[in-house]
Amino acid sequence: VAELTHAEWVDLATHGPRPEELASAKETLRAQTLMGRDAPGARAASAAYGLLVFGTVPETGDLLARLESVDSGAVRDAARAGLAGVPAASAVGPRAGLAAARAYTTF
Predict the structure, then answer these.
(1) pLDDT in tens, 52-85
(2) How far apart are CA 27 and CA 45, in angstroms?
(3) Any idea what DSSP says for residue 105?
(4) pTM surpassing 0.85?
């Protein structure tokens, strides 16, 4: 699985996402963003996160506009940056699972 994951990152860093992949990802994130505004607890958590991380509560329209502005080049650049950094992985569960997490740091 580690090799497949790495190959996907390399493909994104080289070619960027296919148009249908980018459109699907945007649709999914747009739906999650809007549905996440339905419950008061989710709105409160989102507002708290925005205040702690960004110092402001982001407006839904602003979030959706930023999402819409993402293009293939931005995804490609993010993948390149991810591959250029120090490999890291985390694991949750029994200690035996750490061997699998280490496989992600060997590239």
Answers:
(1) 999 999 899 999 999 999 999 999 999 999 999 8
(2) 22
(3) T
(4) no
Q: What is the largest CA-CA distance in the chain?
A: 45
Long-range contact set of residues 59-64: C-beta below 8 Å, sequence gap at least 24: 60/33, 60/34, 63/33, 64/30, 64/33
Rounded Cα distance, 13 and 61, in Å: 29
Neighbours of 17 (CB within 10 A): 19
Nearest Cα to Cα of residue 28 among 16, 17, 40, 39: 17
* For residue 91, pLDDT beyond 80: no
